[in-house]
Amino acid sequence: MSSEPAHLPDVNAEIAKVVLPDDEAIARSRRVREDRLAFPPIYVVVGAYRLLSDPNLRVPAWKKCQHGVLRGAAVGLGWAFFTFEIQKKFIEVFLRNSPKVTGLSHDTLFGYQLPFTVTTYAAVVLLANQVTNILKFFLSKNIRIARDRAWDQTVLSRGKGPEFWQPYVEEWANPPQLTKRSWERWVGGYFGRFVIMRGLLLPLNFYPFIGIAIGAYMKAVGTARYLHKQYFAAKKMTDDQVAVFMEERKWHYRAFGFAAALLESIPIVGLVFTVSNRVGAAMWAHDLEKRQHAFASGDLSPEVHRRPTLTQDASDFVGSFPKKTQ
């Protein structure tokens, strides 16, 4: 009988095939990242999925907020129970006496018959917003802590430390010149948004989804900048660098901010999205930073770009993304 051992497979080689990414896997990962960068609103969806599916994100956020949610829900439900009929009656009088302002009747919307009266819908929307504000009051500091921890945990899950965030690198050979008009500063500020949303656009809140959508558009850029505040701080970017960086991705930030603000504007449930949007923003920041590394290392070179326009960006929604070569 032969004493030679039977042929065994090379275990190290087999492990290497499974563990070590080959060029095709790296290229595939890069294409996935580029696809996400090309359509930033997807980060809002991915952030919500990550928050709900990852216990490392979901459990700490809930533990930090659960007592405030329970107290706020008890007060909010009591408030809604005792004031619903009063508020409904007030709205009914307002709609009856202001048909030119609201353009609404009591049983139709855009000419379509509704299964409920418009006054009932308006009262529910008004109460839902009030309950949301009550929840915000009871959550207050804790939900801010939960958002910050969600960002930190998302970054940590990528295995990145503080050294990952490198100084800002310009990606355009001809960065845009910023000229912001005075009226844009006023409209974009808190007071301007408050006057427009709570005054001029108030009647639109009686229409399903219209008021929320317009409000989200007004808050889009501000929301996006706020969600990336930690990213800009980690890179130690100046105000001018932040302004140029966002202008170069003008429609990307507007689309991301619109999607985030739209979800956050949903009464009550929107509070959950204020946390999940921080998760999505951290994931977008990670991918943007990987791109910054490519420019810093010379793998990518600054390219000449036209001033970003909706027509230019909407054609393939890539904005500052370099065109792929065949």
UniProtKB/TrEMBL annotation:
Q: Does the keyword Chloroplast apply?
A: no
Keywords attached to this Swiss-Prot or TrEMBL record, sorted alphabetically, are: Membrane, Transmembrane, Transmembrane helix
- What's the domain of life for this entry? Eukaryota
Q: Which residues cross the membrane?
A: 118-139, 200-218, 255-275
InterPro entries, A to Z: CysZ/EI24, Spore_wall_assembly
Q: How does it sit in the membrane?
A: Multi-pass membrane protein
Tell me yes or no: is Flavoprotein among this UniProt entry's keywords. Answer: no
Q: Where in the cell is it found?
A: Membrane
Protein name, entry field: Uncharacterized protein
